Amino acid sequence: MDASTFESVIDIPGWLGSLLNTAIPIVIVLILLCYFHYRAGTSYGFVSRLYTLLAGRSDYHDGTLEDYWKKHKDLERFNAVFNFKAKSLQDAHRLINWFDEYDLDHKRFARLKSWFDVEKLEIREATRTQVFILFLLGVTLVAPTVIFTDAALKNAALIKFNDETRWLWLGHDQAYSVTYNPIRDRSKDWRLTKQNCGKETFDAESVASATGLKAKTITSICDSFTNATDDEYINGVIEGQTLFLAPALPLAYWVLISFAGVFRRLSVIGTTVYLVEKKRIKTEANEQSSSSNARNTEPSQETSEVAS
């Protein structure tokens, strides 16, 4: 069987596959840098360490610049550790005092990300309609994400023989049906292994009837398990299928963004209720304290009147 016997879903030259393998670590490093920048709000710390590594000095000679740098370094560390977006040390101080005043759990507000305005100490409004739309988007994108990711990482070639209508997975020692429907009739799934082909009782016609493929296709599959040329071609197709990561990664990103948005908005709704309740408790405590102080002053006023 040669390459013209079947068609693959994708194929790329070897040099491009090597280039992709080299680019993956670089992309991972860039993603980590972007995450740190997003978490801290700035990249001052990273740039400072890079400058120190190249120039060999981290502090400033000028006292004013040194004090300015320390303030921003403290602010960047505060934002990175506690996951807030304070723009100044004053904002950070006011935020801490606000937490203490109403006895608030800072972790609940840190999870809100951009939905919590540190400067105004306000929570943006989120609706259940937004939650539903994002959930629907995430569910819709799950299926193509799973398919593309599976094709990119599976150690089998996704091919279709030219005289067949069905696609199948062809590996080095087994072939099996393409199955992504979770509610499919699993009795129609099939798997043909190298061991099956080597049995004396093996009958291509009966296997073809069970799989829905043609007998000559079954024979070609069995031949591919022992043919060096076919094995090399299958390796090339498997390597080429890594290109499916190109659509898989953005899709996975949007799936994560969608579900993260769902949980974020649910957290916003819950934290809004939590804040209202904490403020109510604080208001009632203040009113009770005022009433108690007022009652405590009444006897002293009466005593003064009697004395006069």
Sheet with most strands? 5 strands, antiparallel
Shape: elongated
The tally of helices reads: 11
- Work out the strand percent: 5-15%
Which strand order does the major sheet show?
1-4-5-6-7
Overall pLDDT confidence:
83
Task: Quickly list its features.
308 residues; 11 helices; five-stranded antiparallel β-sheet; elongated
Report on this structure.
It is a single chain. Helices cover 66% and strands 7% of the residues. The protein has helices at 14-40, 44-55, 63-82, 89-102, 106-110, 128-153, 194-198, 204-211, 215-224, 228-240, 245-307, and strands spanning 6-8, 116-117, 122-123, 157-161, 168-170, 174-177, 191-193. Strands 1-4-5-6-7 form a five-stranded antiparallel β-sheet. It has a two-stranded antiparallel ribbon with strand order 2-3. Helix 6 (128-153) packs antiparallel against helix 11 (245-307). The longest helix is centred in the C-terminal third of the chain and has 63 residues, at 245-307. The model has no long low-confidence stretch (mean pLDDT 83).
Explain briefly what this protein structure is.
66% of the residues lie in helices and 7% in strands. With 308 residues, it is α+β, with helices and mostly antiparallel strands.
Task: Annotate the secondary structure layout.
Layout: E1 6-8, H1 14-40, H2 44-55, H3 63-82, H4 89-102, H5 106-110, E2 116-117, E3 122-123, H6 128-153, E4 157-161, E5 168-170, E6 174-177, E7 191-193, H7 194-198, H8 204-211, H9 215-224, H10 228-240, H11 245-307
Antiparallel strand pairs: 1-4, 2-3, 4-5, 5-6, 6-7
Helix pairs in contact: 6-11, 8-9
